[in-house]
Amino acid sequence: MENENKKSKKGVSLGIIVIVLLAIMVGLSYYFFRPTSPKEVFISKIEETLNQANAATNNNAEKINSTISLSGNIETTNEEIAQIAQILNNGKLTLNLQADTNSKKMLIGADVNYLNESLINAKAFYQKGDNNVYLFVQDLFDRYFKVSTEEMETEEEMTNVFSEIKDKETASKILKETISENLKEEYFSKENVDEMTKNTMKLTVSELKSLCTNVVTSLKDNQKFLDCFENSGKMKKVLEDTLKEINEMEKDYDSARIEISLYTKESAKDVKKMDAKVVVSETEEGTFILNKVDDNSLTFNVEVKGKTDEIPFTAQALNGTIKKEKIGNDTTKMTVVVENVPEVGKVTLNIEEKKSSNTDLENVDTANAVDFNNMTEQEMMTLYTNLQKMKIYSFIAPFLGIQ
After folding, report:
1. Higher confidence at residue 38 or residue 259?
2. What is the 3-state secondary structure (H, E, C) of 27-72?
């Protein structure tokens, strides 16, 4: 009985994961078009997503500077959550990425701010060809720390940071065509609902895995697609590894059914609504619904239904809004509001991104960097002494039971 309960709950979790992934893939791109078949509606969404991705990366900027600021607010009557809310409501996280695509350098900065004071400010620097990552924490040490990428087990990932697609347009075209060729007409249906056309794609998890396998295999064997990348051999290896991961996926939920519907008003050439459902069994399912209010606003909700012999439940787990606005020429702000987070209350997340191009990378001096794994006793003592003086130390010490 215990195993059945665990499997039931795991099924619901899998369902929600699939819902979110597929929702991201086909549900967040809206534009005007006149569909002629349900399959073409979905292909149009995929194509638009690829075009938007290419547009975002085709500015040919040699130097990139992007800053993302995250802040939030929790309104709750839960006394335990209120302690966390106190921190979140007065805190702010700022991440900065600077990159030079010519010299293959990257600098990532992070600042944690509480009550308008910086608790910790840190940086990480990497340059292609160097087998080290350099870390700097303000007020902790006066020099960068050097950490081998081999010891971090991220050497290959760091090397891939500056991997380039030589021909994004061709790669996107081949990808779209390959997906279209493998989407069977039998997956699709069409009906009229509430004065809208409901275009639905329905398939099982087993069929989805088969679809992914066929698409990845076709791309792996398509030399024209591989030649779109700076290192075609490495891309082929990535696709081969992806195939292995698909083949190793558990088969417990292969019979689960996935349904994604896009609602269009043909007279307005507009997608007004998207919903995605995963049906694990007769008593377990999850639904994700996304409604377009206008070009910059969406509403969403997630409903999960599950039942075991001991714990039947139905819960509207998430319900909220997403709003986006442009501030000037280089800043975008997004506000996500979730009205009814279980056991918490209302949660608001503010995300602000500012981008600039062709600005010089901040100067980084790694000549006297300290090898983190070979520090002298004096350096370690300096490190510990400085740590105790930092604001972050006094902030987290009470939570760690340190006096």
Report:
1. 259
2. CCCCCCCCCCCHHHHHHHHHHHHHHHHHHHHCCCCCEEEEEEEEEE
Assigned token pair, 132: 């080290």
- Pairing assessment for the beta strands 370-371 and 145-148 based on DSSP bridges: parallel
Structure tokens at 19: 């819902």
Question: Among residues 166, 172, 173, 181, which one has the least CA distance to residue 218?
Answer: 181
Residues 6+ apart with CB under 8 A from 244: none
Report whether pLDDT(13) > 80. no
Does 98 score more than 80 pLDDT?
yes
**What tokens appear for 37 in the block?**
């078949």
| DSSP single-letter state for residue 374 | G
Which tokens in the block code for residue 157? 């990932």
Give me the residue label for tokens 């939570």: 399
Lowest mean pLDDT: which of 24-33, 109-118, 213-222, 234-243?
A: 24-33
Beta bridge partners of 137: 122
pTM over 0.90? The answer is: no
List the alpha helices (DSSP H) in 114-266.
Answer: 155-159, 168-182, 205-220, 223-226, 232-247
In the block, residue with structure tokens 């082929």: 236
Q: List, for residues 349-364, the tens digit of each pLDDT value.
A: 999 999 887 778 888 8
Q: What is the mean pLDDT of the chain?
A: 81
Under DSSP, is residue 223 helix (H, G, I), strand (E, B) or coil? helix
Distance of CA 255 to the CA centre of its chain: 27
